Amino acid sequence: MLRFESVALRHADGTRALGGVSLEVPAGQFCVVLGASGAGKSTLLRTVNGLARPTGGTVRVEGTAIGPKTLSRIRPRIGMIHQQFNLVARSTVAENVLCGALPAMPLWRALPGLFTEAARRKACALVEAVGLGEEHLLRRVSELSGGQQQRVGIARAFMLDPPLVLADEPVASLDPQTSHDVLSLLRRQARERGATVLCSLHQLELAREFADRIVALRRGVVVFDGAPRAFGAQAFDAVYGRHADAPPADAADPAPAWQPPPSSPQPLPGGLLELAP
Amino acid sequence: MNAPATLAAGTRPPARPSSDWTLPRPFGLRTLLVLCALLAAGLFAGQRVELGRMLSLTGEGVLAAVGLREQSQVLSGLGTIARSLFPPQVSERTEVARIEGFDRERLPWFSHLETVETREPRLNPQTLAMEERVERREVLVQPLGYLWHVAAKMLETFEIAVWATLIAIVLSAPLAWCSARNYAPNRLVYGAARAVVGLLRAVPELVSALFLVLAYGFGPIAGVLALALHSAGFLGKFYAEDIETADDRPQEALRAIGAGKLEVMRFAVLPQVMPGFIAYTLYVLDRNVRMATVVGLVGAGGIGQELKGRYDMYNYAHVGTILIAIFLTVLLLDRVAARLRRRYG
Question: What residues in chain A have per-residue pLDDT under 50?
Fold first, then answer.
């Protein structure tokens, strides 16, 4: 489905964002990319739909290498959910969701906003599927809460039934309970529609709960790749590094400290996972 | 989240006690010196534009108005104008003999005929005696005739302004696209579009109207074109600036799924910049109505042309009517624009 072949990306100023990532994501998998801020999660996701251009290696989606020539054909097959939702705040929910169908429309229909009846029905169905009601359809996005906005973002991403969905920190700006709800919604939608999801997260406990597979990055290099169960204290140190100011209890007994209490969706003590590498 | 990160990185300099910390002062000696220099320059410029005389003449006027002085140049000048503008001309009288194809049976609405007798002494060439001769002239009186005339001219002015604004919107759309850095196809087009926008704004309407009157002749065409060209430059610049500063995140979201530039502009940029566009466009319309009266002065149609004609014929009562009409129109437009802005802004 999705293959990274030693993908490397070096910014113009010489900093390395990705240092040769090789990875294969099979169809239908919910694959979480885990890592601290600046580990290269976003960059990795953005190389898939060409928002970032790798300086080395290739990304293949369904066997097609991503490049300037193939991009326009492949992009409509990749949905994307953004950290800052990236919705048009002044437009309505319906308009934002319908925007997801734009690449499949001829220009003469798109510019005056003449969406097909099928697209309109689909938009309504998706708005319902992400847990919003009819009363939200004509509301401006700016009037919605963060969680509701991200639901709109998810609905937009699924408009064209993309076989692959990129979710770039979809819950980074949401509170823990909402994060949980939004991620389970994303996972359920992807399951129902058979979409592969590549989702970047920085919250370990959310990754553990929702991922089929965790790929952890540190400074642009894969340092862990495996099932969530296998992600232990050693992997944690590899991803986030040992640090001086962790709470003493964790330093003394790291292994159980990272297990979230099974009943509670609360994140780990604030700040801990956000430390710069 | 940032504080522990900085701590961990260990980049913080050794802390000083807060008693040693300093906050910048709001202004210092240099600011004062600069202000003094600006004041001196302002005084120099003021003396060159006769601000002193303006103050003394205005002062005299105020004193005369409250009765502390016998007379004032300013006040008597203003008085003369006011007396000649008032009462404004409302009716229209035309000599029947001067109307071509006059039909006595079919008078215009609300009009009547009057016979005016004029007596004048005349020398009879036979008798060489002065005798009084009575001359009868028939006059068509339209009680609201001039008011209608002014209203029609005002409507023409408004139409000039509306069409100038419409043409300006159409012209400025491609200009704005090309002079927005993030949408211009390349640097060459960007530079050219910026230059065109700058040029259009640099030429005042009145000046371009002067030349367009030479090219298109007297009448509204020159007015529409002159206003449209200037407004296109104005709108192009402001539209482009709004497009450049629009939030990029929704645009990126649409680019990511493969939407084209036009679609991104239509669905991610336009909704964001619409309030600004409406505000600029209404301002331009408002300005065009006012400027349409001015370009009329050089013969580019509308009420300005009428104003200029009446002014040159010393028909100050007519000028009074025209001025009141312009004032009312601008006032009305202001109210309508405010309402539109509240509704769609």
Answer: 244-257, 264-265, 270-277
Q: Note down the domain range covering B75.
A: 51-85
In a domain, B22, yes or no: no
Residue A271: inside a domain: no
Q: What is the pLDDT of residues A63-114, one digit of tens each?
A: 999 998 999 899 999 999 999 999 999 999 999 999 999 999 999 999 998 9
Give contacts of A71 with chain B, Cβ < 8 Å.
258
The count of domains in chain A is 1
In a domain, B215, yes or no: yes
- Is A36 part of any domain? yes
> B233 and B328 share a domain?
yes
Q: Is there a single domain that holds both residue B177 and residue B77?
A: no
pLDDT of residue A243: 55
Task: Using DSSP bridges, classify how beta strands A164-168 and A16-25 pair: parallel, antiparallel or unpaired.
Answer: unpaired
Nearest Cα residue in chain A from B250? A86
Closest by Cβ to A79, choosing from B8, B257, B272: B257
Instruction: Note whether B283 and B313 are same-domain residues.
Output: yes
User: Residues B150, B270: one domain?
Assistant: yes
Asked if residue B270 and residue B299 are part of one domain, the reply reads: yes
Distance CA B336, CA B345 (A): 13
In this structure, the answer to whether residues B332 and B258 fall within a common structural domain is: yes
Phi, psi of A179 (to 5 degrees): -55, -45
- How far is the alpha carbon of B263 from chain A, nearest alpha carbon, in Å? 6
Range of the domain at A252: 2-266
Same domain, B161 and B307: yes
Q: Is the Cβ pair A78, B257 closer than 8 Å? A: yes
Question: Strand (E) positions, B85-129?
Answer: 92-95, 112-123
Ordered DSSP codes for B139-155: EEEETTHHHHHHHHHHH
The contact set of B with A (CB < 8 A) is: 1, 4-5, 7-9, 247, 249-250, 252-260, 262-263, 266-268, 271-272, 274-275
- β pairing state of A78-81 and B112-123: unpaired
Task: Quote the pTM value.
Answer: 0.78
**Inter-chain touch B5–A86, beta carbons under 8 Å:** no
**B274: chain A residues, CB-CB within 8 Å:** 90
A274 inside 8 A of chain B by CB = yes
The closest of A100, A18, A27 to A61, measured between CA atoms, is A27
Contact between chains at A90 and B254 (C-beta distance less than 8 A):
no
CB < 8 Å to A82, chain B: 249, 252-253
Q: Number of folded domains in chain B?
A: 3
CB A7 within 8 A of CB A58: yes
CB contact under 8 A, A87 and B266: no
Q: What is the CATH number of the domain that holds B209?
A: 1.10.3720.10
CA–CA min distance B333, chain A (Å): 27
Residues 6+ apart with CB under 8 A from A237: A254
Closest to A82 measured CA to CA, from A42, A47, A40: A42
Whole-angstrom distance, CA of residue A177 vs CA of residue A30? 20
Give B101-160 pLDDT, tens digit per residue. 888 888 887 888 888 888 888 888 888 888 888 888 888 888 888 999 999 999 999 999
Residues B67, B212, single domain; the answer is no
Yes or no: say if A59 and A8 are a contact pair by the CB < 8 Å rule: no
